[in-house]
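Researcher: Structure for this, please.
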Amino acid sequence: MAEAPTPTRRRKPRVLTFFCLLAIAGLFSMPLIAGDPAEAALTEILKFLGRFHPVLLHLPIGVFVLILLQELGAIFARRAQPHAATSLFPLCFGAASAIAAAIAGFLLYHGDGGDYGGNEIAQRHLWGGLAFAAAAVVTFLAKAWTSALDANPAWYRLLLFASVAVMGFASHDGASLTHGRDYLTQHAPSSLRKLLGLKDGPNSAGPARAADDRVIYTDLIAPILERRCVECHKEGKAKGKFRMDTYELLVKGGKEGPGIEPGNADQSHIVIRMKLPTDDDEHMPPEGKPDVTDTELALIEWWIDQGADPAKTLAESPPPAGLLDSPPAATPRETSGTPDAALQSLVASLSREFPGALAFDPPTSALVSFSTLPLRGNLDDAAFAKLAPLLPHLASLDLSASNITERSIAALAPATRLRLLRLAETGVTDAAVDPLLKLTSLESINFHGTRITDAGAAKLAALPNLKHLYLWQTAVTPQTLQMLKEKLPGCEIIGPAAD
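Model: Predicted structure, token format:
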């Protein structure tokens, strides 16, 4: 007579439980031991590892969402053994990647010079990330014990749902920290914003006002700061503990002191940072972000020198002649309408070829800016030729430190709307000037560090709308500079004579 098979005894995961609990204890002890981020002294290698947090955090998110979908499928399918819907390995991998992301986030939080210290969202995101990592480990343990005991998976699934909920809150705080609290709703329809109890968005139409009734700060300066600076200096994301989204906070400044010195632009922190070389780590805006234009910077300097009054109108404090003839990118100006589908498709296609280099300028217009800065100067004539279909829409072109030659400059003939051109630290010579004389809309040209001489510079006097000309560190002589100043009295000219 055959004997009945002996039931298989499964090993209980006691050792695994010990190490998982040890990992949870280690996670929550890190911030308690490290203290305030401003006091942390991390080595360069730890700071380097912290920068991997944005990469690692997507792993546990994807894994746990997939596991959740599998478990939901098992529940609705009413399988005989639904707890077998997922194996231990995905949960093990998800928990391990959650721990790695939490540790990297901790290093990032403590390794950025204290920028996150005192930031409520950053602190909440840190503890939310640690809580999710711990919940992921507990969920993994619950799955291991459920499988070992062949028990009902209800508790495991409850923990899984709770872990995903914690993950959602932590992810929301992370997105708010990176993009700001209003990132998701910034461009929401007005009806939805009202339903959520939010203020009207930045593009909401307001009552039209006469030009002289415009408030200088509200209508001219604040839009520039909104476009160039506020993304990194607002509620929920204040680098250097410096917010620029309100006048009061702009004046107050951050950990480096006041943001502006009313009446003294040269001593104002934001102006000093804006004037630094673009390759300087302290330059503002940072690398990869659209830089302020020469006109925008001139307007900010003038406003600060006039006392930085937040309420004065243009009628009360008229700007120097010519300063507003070319309104800054963020202020009302000729925009050639809104971008049509063909132009949007073209910009999207070229953006894949030139990551970060293209942007609509301003964002709602059919004018486009191009900057080689995000490409680290890696641009030559052959690559620039790919921009040919876009030339009629260019308003700003920054080719600084690139490998372009006069061949590319000669191809600019269709760029009839081009207002700003930067050729600093390129190899262009006097041969680049003649093609530029046909671009009568040019208002600012930067030849810093090029091989232009008196012969080429003298011809620039024929440009009727030129308001800014930069010729320092060139072979242009003071005599030619003086001649240009006489022929272009409304143009700011900086060159060897001013060095």
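Researcher: Any notable elements?
Model: Residues 14-179 form one domain. Residues 120-149 form the longest helix (30 residues).
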